[in-house]
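Schema walkthrough. Field components (list of strings):
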Amino acid sequence: MAQALESDPDVEMILGMGTSEPSVPLERAEFVRADQTYSILSRIVRATQVDTIVHTFLVVDSTRVSSRLMHEINVIGTMNLLAAAGQSGSSVRQVVVKSASLVYGAASTDPTWFREEMARTSPARTRVERSLLEVEGFVRDFAEDNPATVVTVLRFANVLGTDIVTPISSNLSRALCPSVGGYDPLLQFIEEDDVVRCLEHVTRHRIPGLYNVAGTGRLPWSEVAGMCGTRLLPLPPAGTRAAASALVRMKLIEFPPELDGLLRYGRGIDTTRITKAGYHCRYSTAGAVDSFIQATRLRRSLGKQPIAYTYEQDVEQFFRRSSAVLRPDGTV
Amino acid sequence: MVTSRETAHREQRAALVPLPRPAEPADNGLRLSDVDEWGRSAHMRELARQLYAPLYEKWFRVEWEGLERIPRQGGALLVANHAGAIPSDAPVIMHGIEKELGRPVYGLADYFFRSAPWVGTMWARLGGVPAHPDNALRILRDQGDLCLVFPEGTKGPSKTYTDRYRLRRFGRGGFVEIAMRAGVPVIPIAVVGAEESMPILFRLPSVAKVLGVPYVPVTANMLALGPLGLLGYFPAKFKLRVLEPVTFDVPPGQERYSKSRVMDEAEKIRLHLQETLYEMLRARRSVWFG
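Field assembly_structure (string):
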C-alpha cells in the first residue's frame, strides 16, 4: 500500500505503523513501530497532522493469533485508532478500514449474493466474525459522530494471491484439502494485488461508504481444488468439527470454525456498488486462483527464498543520501 | 511539492487520453467445470434432461394446456400447487417448460434443500436456487428469466392423501410482493397427478424432529415397494393447465407494498388455482389415464 502511494507526487508524506518492520523496500515512507493496540497513535496524529488513516491491520484469520490477541488488535486497536482520529482538533479527514466479507457469515438461509445493506441471516458464532462486527459497529458510530470525515469500509472476499497465507491457501497448497461431504459451495476470491489497488483507489479519490470487493465470478470449491491440483478430503457432514480437529492436530489441514459454514454454503457478495465507484478488479475469482497457483509453482521450483532483487538497506541509503552520488538534475 | 496548477493540468491531460477500461476478465482456459454463478451446470442439466425425458413422456405422460400463456421472453413468476411426498411436480414443470419453450426455469426451493448434503448440491447443479426474495428479484428483474415457486412451501407436499388437491395457506404472500417489486406477472399453473404419484398415508413427526427435516412421510409407494418406494413414483397421468397471467397495477421497485393488497392478491390467485383444480378433477375419468 505504501509502495503504491509513494509513486504519487501529490502525497506529501506517508507514515507506516505496525508491530514489525516493513518487509518491502520503501523509498519515501517512514515507519513507526507500535504495539498491537496502537495506543501511541493519538500522539502521532497530533504530532504529524496526518489527514488520512488507512486501517489494514484487522485480523481476519483466527488460526494465526490467539483469540485474546485478536480482540486486542481488532477491537481495542480500532478503538484507539478511531479515538485518535476523532480527538478534538484532529487533522484526520479520512479513515479507510479494511474489513472482510466474513461479517456476512455463511448459512443455508443466505441469499446467493449479499448487498452491502443486507444483514447476515445467522447469528455470529465465531470469534473473528464477532470481533469484525464489533469493529464495524465502532466505525459506523465514528462516521455518525464525525460527518466531516470521509469514512470508508471495504469488505473483501477471501484473499488469494502470490504471497498471502490464509487457512484456505495453505489447505490448497497441500496434497489433501478439506471439504464437507455432500457440499460443494461456490466461493469468491480476490487477488491480493486488487486489495491494495482498491484501498489505494478509495484513499486517493476520497470515496466514502461501505463496499463489497471481490473478483467477478464464483467457483465451486471442488473446482478450486482441482485447479490447484489437490485432492478433496471430505469430512463427515455431521460432526464435522470433531473430525476436523483431529486432522488439525495432526497438522494435515487447517480448519478454523469460519470454514465450517463457508465450505457448506459458500458466500457471494454483490460488487455493483464498488464498480459504480470506479474500481474494477484486475483479477476475476478464477484469475485470483490462477495467480495463487502460479506463485505456488514458482515457490516449488525455487524454494522459499525471495525471488526479486533483495533489498539492501545500506546500499539504498547510500544512493539516496550520499553526496558522492550525482543527481540527474545536477544537484548534489 | 506539486502546485495545484500542475495537478489540474495533469488531470486535464488524463481526461483527454482515452484510458482503456479494464476489460471484463476472461476466465477461458482457467475454468475446469461449467458451473455458473448460481451453481447450475449446463452439461449436468442436459444429462438430467436426457435421463428424465422417458419418465416425463412415458411414465407420467405429461399433457400441457395453455402453454402459450407463458411469455417467450422477459421475467415471469410461475406459481403452482405442490404435492407428493418427494414432489414430482417441480421437475415436471421445469422439464416441460425447458423442453417446450426452450427457456430456462429457476426453481426456488426451501432453505432446507440447501442444507441437506448431496441433495442440495445436486439440486443447485440442476437449476435450483435458495428461496430468498433477493434471489428471485435478480432472476426476474435483472436477468428477465422464469422463476418457479410453490407458495404453499413444505405444507403442500407434507399433507396426507386425505387432503389431496386442497391448497394450503399461501405463505405470507411473499411471492406477490416479489412479482410487484420486479414488475413481472404471476402465472399460476394447476397440476393434476402429482398427488397420486406418491401419496402420503401418514407422517412421523417425532422422527422428523430427530432427523431435523421438515417431515418424514410414510407413503403408499413404500408399502408397495419397500424402501424403493422412496424413489419409485406411481404412473399417475399428469395434466397441467397454465392460467391467465396476473399483473399488478403498482409501480415496481418499491421496498414495501400494502400488506392488505398483497394478501388479497395472493388469496385471489389461490382461489383461482383451487377452482381450476376442482374443475380439472371433475373432468378426470381415471387417475392413471386422465
